[in-house]
Design goal:
Number of domains: 1
Low-confidence stretches: none
Bound molecules: zinc ion
Number of strands: 11
Distance between the termini: 37 Å
Shape: globular
Strand order of the largest sheet: 5-4-6-1-7-9-2-10
Radius of gyration: 20 Å
Order of helices and strands: HEHHHHHEEHHEHHEHHEHHEEEEEHHH
Length: 365
């Protein structure tokens, strides 16, 4: 009997912790494929600007270079280095002791996204092929929770999210690659985006849509349908890094920072979302750093490509700015961290190992 009381008390304090204290009612997750922590925290790299990987060096210097690192990174990502650093938290600046990493040993996209959304650095997920992911993911879990049914949506540039998030099993909205959007009652703007993307250049590949279209779909859907969980997945920075095009890589990162600002400005001026929505920003893997051309690549054989970053801004996350705690956070911890922000326990329902929540997201220390 005593045991039962203890269990009941524990259960009560658990639900108290998760269900009552949180203010977060909605989450928006944005990933930028292959964006290095080096650019996030240090801004544009002078060695790369001066290398053969950068065309129009004068333009790039004018747009993104200044000697002072805090000014330089703000030139590249002004939203991150204004609203997010002032009101949120940023993890992964190794120059200040904060380390963020993927736990999977592969350091490429599918394993990276699998880790973020299933909370599990599954050894079997060593592929970028169209293999349907057997593991339960956070978004699928959310889509089954009371009040979240059909209020979970994914917009991704890369078509592989159909498999990564297991569209057939989850049944939730996943619009990925050049897939037309088909939602009952969708407005003319969304219809128009369906037409527009047929005419868009496919300069990355037939499987990857240009990010601005993915953004426009996500933003327009958000405004019309007010999802409680929205995932927006950008891809171009990774493609441009593989191509060794530093100018375009920086340009896209700068543009995507501005896209995220648009989302946040909308969130904070709309009564459905204002002060009850947490925004999480991260990436799927890091990239190499030295020698110079290693920034093109990532993978188990590319040193330091496990090194990543993430950021959070929302009503349950104390404004701590750049984290300097000498701890390593892992992307397998993000799923349960996000679930807890919503007052939910993904770990108990997942059916596989899930990383522990990152406490500092809600304590600030
Ligand atoms: Zn890549």
């Amino acid at each position: 009997m005593k045991k039962l009381i203890v269990i009941l008390l524990l259960a009560a304090s658990f639900s108290n912790l998760f269900a009552q204290q949180h203010k977060t009612q909605n989450v928006i997750i944005v990933t930028i494929d292959g964006l290095r922590w080096q650019e996030v925290f240090r801004g544009a790299d002078s060695a790369l600007i001066n290398s053969n990987d950068t065309q129009d060096k004068d333009v790039v210097r004018k747009n993104f270079w200044t000697a002072d690192v805090t000014e330089r990174r703000k030139k590249l990502m002004p939203f991150i280095w204004s609203a997010v650093v002032e009101q949120g938290q940023l993890y992964g600046n190794r120059d200040k002791g904060s380390k963020d990493e993927v736990a999977n040993p592969y350091h490429f996209s599918y394993p990276g996204y699998n880790e973020i959304f299933t909370g599990f650095a599954a050894p079997k997920m060593n592929t970028n092929e169209p293999v349907t992911n057997p593991n339960m993911n956070l978004l699928e879990f959310l889509n089954k929770q009371k009040g979240f049914e059909n209020k979970v949506a994914t917009f991704a540039s890369w078509e592989r999210f159909t498999q990564i998030l297991n569209a057939p099993r989850s049944g939730m909205l996943i619009n990925a690659g050049f897939m037309p959007l088909s939602v009952p009652g969708m407005n003319d703007r969304l219809q128009h985006l369906n037409e527009l993307q047929l005419e868009a250049p496919r300069y990355i590949s037939d499987s990857t849509r240009i990010d601005f279209l993915t953004f426009e779909f996500a933003k327009t859907y958000l405004k019309q349908f007010k999802p409680r969980a929205l995932y927006l997945s950008f891809d171009e920075p990774d493609d441009l890094a593989h191509a060794g095009n530093y100018k375009f890589y920086l340009d896209r990162v700068h543009q995507e920072d501005a896209f995220i600002r648009q989302l946040w400005n909308y969130i904070q001026t709309n009564p459905t979302y204002k002060d009850k929505t947490t925004l999480i920003l991260t990436c799927d893997h890091g990239r190499g750093d030295v020698p110079l051309t290693k920034w093109h690549d990532h993978g188990s054989d590319v040193a330091h490509s496990e090194q990543t970053w993430f950021a959070v801004i929302g009503p349950d996350s104390p404004a701590a700015g750049e984290m300097t705690l000498p701890v390593t956070t892992y992307h397998k911890q993000l799923a349960q961290t996000i679930a807890n922000l919503l007052g939910l326990d993904f770990k108990a329902a997942a059916g596989h190992q899930v990383g522990d929540p990152i406490k500092s997201v809600t304590t600030g220390k």
